[in-house]
Amino acid sequence: METRVIQVEEQHIQTGLLRQAGEIIKAGGLVAFPTETVYGLGGDALNPDSSRKIYEAKGRPSDNPLIVHICRMEDLAYIVEEIPEAALKLAEAFWPGPLTMIFHKSAAVPHETTGGLDTVAVRMPSHKTALSFIREAGGYVAAPSANRSGRPSPTCAKYVTEDLAGRIEMVIDGGGVEIGLESTIVDMTEEDPVILRPGYITKEMLESVLGSVREDRTMMSDLNGQAPRAPGMKYRHYAPKGSLTIVDGEEERVTAYINERLDCLKREGHKTGVIGTDTTIARYRGDVCKSAGSRDDERTVARELYRILREFDDEEVTAIFSESFDTAGIGQAVMNRLLKAAGHRIVYLQ
Ligand code: TXA
Ligand code: MG
Predict the structure, then answer these.
(1) How far apart are CA 21 and CA 29, in angstroms?
(2) How many CB atoms lie within 10 A of CB 11?
(3) pLDDT digits (tens, 9 = 90+) for 98-127
(4) How far is the CA of 8 from the centre of ligand 1 (A)?
């Protein structure tokens, strides 16, 4: 299959092109599209064959449910059993935006889309191209991140084509994404909403609307034998080919420790890499040193992290060290993804 790539600028949306993209979805095909978080791999959420194709194109286990993307609040009721009051409040505050909510599904949503579950994850993205595309596609687009299973989520169209060219009909190239990490997922099916995956919408932001919100216990830790409640969180996502170790502690000690380890690993024949920050990166002696941005604004780190992990793979780096990040704000999502990528290997310096 030849994959067509079309360029669509968020500020000058060409509806003619998006109509063609929408037709592909309606005919049961697949189209990757930009959102404010990461690129999604879209198919018709109400068509079981489309969902099967998504799993196949990604090489993803089919027990891992997909997120259904909508573009209008009035479209929600058709795919869910009921809309709890708390969900209405969160939608009012954060939709369109980087928040996914889980509901009991209606009969309209096939089990192929929900990985066999009776619940469905729903998100209304804020990216204008995404919203127009979803509308043209009929209103319900199932989309996981547009990467091959096991690779970091794509933050630009180039990474989508790297992973999926020849496997899908079209890629809508909307340039780089704004946030760089996947949406916050909140389970709304219980009395008290529970955060299953941290993202740009933080616990504090959710609590400013709802009072108290719980966090899934498996979210930041490596609890053995505990099944995470978002099935996708159990897979070793985001893992670079090289070994990744996070080093936490006071700045001077971290750079000294990492440099010592780098020298040693280089002698053993490793190609070494470092994820540092703007103020520290020049101090490292790794073969490939990359700054994830500024500590003053962890949003820059969120935006660069997946690109950096992909580049280490491309450059065949075999041993990587990363500085640790503050878990306030979006820093919690950054550390959640980084810890997963590292298989929870973290060194704490006293
Ligand atoms: O930002 C995002 O959410 C991106 C963009 C494309 O919207 N999408 C995304 O999809 O990250 P994906 O498939 O890579 O991650 C979806 C996560 C998985 O961990 C999955 O297990 C969880 O959502 N999930 C989906 N439906 C669920 C459900 N009914 N119950 C629990 N977890 C669910
Ligand atoms: Mg994903």
Answers:
(1) 9
(2) 6
(3) 999 999 999 999 999 999 999 999 999 999
(4) 25
